[in-house]
């Protein structure tokens, strides 16, 4: 409505100016100078009124936008005017001002709400621009680092030079671990980063979490699991030794051995020899167990070199195929990223893959159409991986968290250090070994590099 009134008002004034101009030309042609002067004055007045009308409208709109820009919502335009078009324009500007004011107040409320959430969050959050300026840091982060206010990442060098180096080298979607020691305590920080765009400016959003308590809990849990398994294995070896030793001692503590009774003496001697043989076997088992523990602790430093994934998997397939148990199991290779290269210790990773294939074969012993797949490629995070997948019965859910515990095993044979040893090798490569299992469908071990 306002635009239409303004349009018609402007058109009307232009039409009158045009008519007055034609009249002035006509009077000048007729040499009627007296009326020509009067017409010229009327033309000037009409032009000035048109300019004033347009300028007044433009000035109001300019005032309105300046007020909005400065977040000043107190500006009001009079709505009772003799000129209908200006009255409607003022009314519309006032309504628009009220609408923008409501939206602004709503946005401020939401902003305060989100800021309060960030303040109360139990993790540190900060936003960094490409010049290293810290645009936002919540109180939890400042308390965690014991430094306030944080304006630039260079300030982190005053806390810890290595911490500043981590942040200066941090890229989007990276994860880092850092142990910070200050006057108050020692904390373990998990640092995760992501990027987002704000008003055309690329920012790095960093989330920092103190996981010292979680690590302590995990460490305690790991020790509990390890001690439980160690106790079980040691007791299995020590109990027969103790029992048989006690029985042999009782033979000779009675003091009633009749050397003249050769049959009785030989019987006791045979039982003693059998008991000592059992003690020897149990002692050997215990020594093997301890040796397995030593091998787990003494993983050699990887001698890394660049290896083509295709060649590695073909070598593993050839080696595990020599086992007679693989005659009824097919081994498939899938290279999802052509010419994929791995910077690894070939011997160690080959040992890991063969161990995983043998474990898969044991789970497929009663499986028809059994298949083991060796898969290599790049995941969505750009990490290189190798997967060992089988279509066996899977791993029970309650055992998933136990299989990497040293000496834990569900088999009648073996020491139970294979998977924990393999995981240790992957960690020394800067990677990880993960498992995913769906009962009665498949089991996948993933080597991440």
TrEMBL record:
<dbReference type="GO" id="GO:0000156">
    <property type="term" value="F:phosphorelay response regulator activity"/>
</dbReference>
<feature type="domain" description="Histidine kinase">
    <location>
        <begin position="229"/>
        <end position="449"/>
    </location>
</feature>
<dbReference type="InterPro" id="IPR005467">
    <property type="entry name" value="His_kinase_dom"/>
</dbReference>
<dbReference type="InterPro" id="IPR035965">
    <property type="entry name" value="PAS-like_dom_sf"/>
</dbReference>
<dbReference type="InterPro" id="IPR036890">
    <property type="entry name" value="HATPase_C_sf"/>
</dbReference>
<keyword id="KW-0808">Transferase</keyword>
<keyword id="KW-0418">Kinase</keyword>
<dbReference type="InterPro" id="IPR003594">
    <property type="entry name" value="HATPase_dom"/>
</dbReference>
<protein>
    <recommendedName>
        <fullName>histidine kinase</fullName>
        <ecNumber>2.7.13.3</ecNumber>
    </recommendedName>
</protein>
<dbReference type="GO" id="GO:0005524">
    <property type="term" value="F:ATP binding"/>
</dbReference>
<dbReference type="Pfam" id="PF13188">
    <property type="entry name" value="PAS_8"/>
</dbReference>
<dbReference type="GO" id="GO:0030295">
    <property type="term" value="F:protein kinase activator activity"/>
</dbReference>
<dbReference type="GO" id="GO:0004673">
    <property type="term" value="F:protein histidine kinase activity"/>
</dbReference>
<dbReference type="Pfam" id="PF02518">
    <property type="entry name" value="HATPase_c"/>
</dbReference>
<dbReference type="InterPro" id="IPR050351">
    <property type="entry name" value="BphY/WalK/GraS-like"/>
</dbReference>
<keyword id="KW-0067">ATP-binding</keyword>
<keyword id="KW-0472">Membrane</keyword>
<dbReference type="GO" id="GO:0016020">
    <property type="term" value="C:membrane"/>
</dbReference>
<keyword id="KW-0902">Two-component regulatory system</keyword>
<feature type="transmembrane region" description="Helical">
    <location>
        <begin position="6"/>
        <end position="26"/>
    </location>
</feature>
<dbReference type="GO" id="GO:0007234">
    <property type="term" value="P:osmosensory signaling via phosphorelay pathway"/>
</dbReference>
<keyword id="KW-0547">Nucleotide-binding</keyword>
<dbReference type="InterPro" id="IPR004358">
    <property type="entry name" value="Sig_transdc_His_kin-like_C"/>
</dbReference>
<keyword id="KW-1133">Transmembrane helix</keyword>
<feature type="domain" description="PAS">
    <location>
        <begin position="110"/>
        <end position="149"/>
    </location>
</feature>
<keyword id="KW-0812">Transmembrane</keyword>
<dbReference type="InterPro" id="IPR000014">
    <property type="entry name" value="PAS"/>
</dbReference>
<feature type="transmembrane region" description="Helical">
    <location>
        <begin position="33"/>
        <end position="51"/>
    </location>
</feature>
């Amino acid at each position: 409505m306002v635009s239409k009134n303004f349009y018609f008002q402007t058109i009307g004034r232009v039409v009158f100016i045009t008519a007055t101009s034609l009249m002035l030309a006509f009077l000048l042609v007729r040499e009627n100078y007296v009326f020509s002067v009067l017409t010229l004055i009327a033309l000037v007045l009409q032009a000035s009124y048109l300019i004033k009308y347009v300028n007044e409208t433009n000035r109001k709109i300019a005032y309105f936008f300046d007020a909005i820009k400065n977040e000043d919502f107190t500006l009001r335009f009079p709505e009772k005017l003799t000129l209908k078009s200006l009255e409607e324009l003022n009314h519309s500007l006032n309504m628009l001002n009220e609408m923008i004011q409501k939206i602004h107040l709503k946005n401020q409320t939401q902003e305060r709400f989100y800021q309060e959430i960030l303040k109360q969050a139990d993790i540190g959050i900060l936003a960094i621009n490409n010049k290293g300026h810290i645009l936002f840091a919540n109180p939890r982060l400042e308390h965690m680092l014991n430094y306030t206010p944080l304006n630039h990442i260079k300030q982190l060098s005053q806390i810890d030079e290595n911490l500043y180096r981590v942040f200066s080298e941090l890229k989007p979607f990276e994860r880092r671990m850092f142990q910070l020691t200050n006057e108050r305590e020692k904390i373990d920080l998990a640092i995760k980063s992501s990027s987002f765009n704000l008003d055309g400016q690329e920012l790095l959003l960093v989330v920092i979490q103190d996981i010292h308590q979680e690590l302590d809990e995990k460490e305690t849990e790991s020790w509990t699991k390890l001690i439980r398994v160690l106790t079980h294995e040691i007791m299995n070896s020590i109990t027969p030794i103790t029992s048989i030793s006690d029985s042999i001692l009782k033979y000779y503590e009675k003091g009633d051995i009749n050397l003249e009774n050769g049959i009785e003496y030989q019987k006791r001697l045979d039982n003693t020899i059998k008991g000592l043989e059992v003690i020897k076997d149990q002692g050997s088992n215990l020594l093997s167990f301890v040796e397995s523990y030593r091998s787990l602790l003494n993983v050699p430093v990887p001698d890394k070199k660049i290896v083509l994934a295709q060649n590695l998997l073909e070598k593993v397939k050839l080696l595990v195929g020599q086992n007679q148990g693989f005659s009824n199991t097919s081994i498939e290779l899938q290279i999802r990223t052509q010419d994929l290269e791995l910077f690894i210790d070939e011997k160690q990773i080959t040992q890991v893959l063969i161990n995983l294939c043998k474990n898969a074969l044991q789970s497929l012993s009663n499986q028809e159409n059994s298949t083991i797949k060796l898969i290599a490629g790049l995941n969505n995070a750009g990490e290189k991986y190798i997967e060992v997948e089988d279509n066996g019965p899977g791993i029970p859910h309650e055992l998933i968290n136990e299989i990497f515990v040293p000496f834990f095993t569900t088999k009648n044979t073996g020491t139970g250090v294979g998977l924990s040893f393999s995981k240790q090798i992957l960690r020394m490569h800067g990677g990880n070994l993960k498992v995913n299992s769906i009962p009665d469908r498949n089991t996948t071990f993933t080597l991440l590099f």
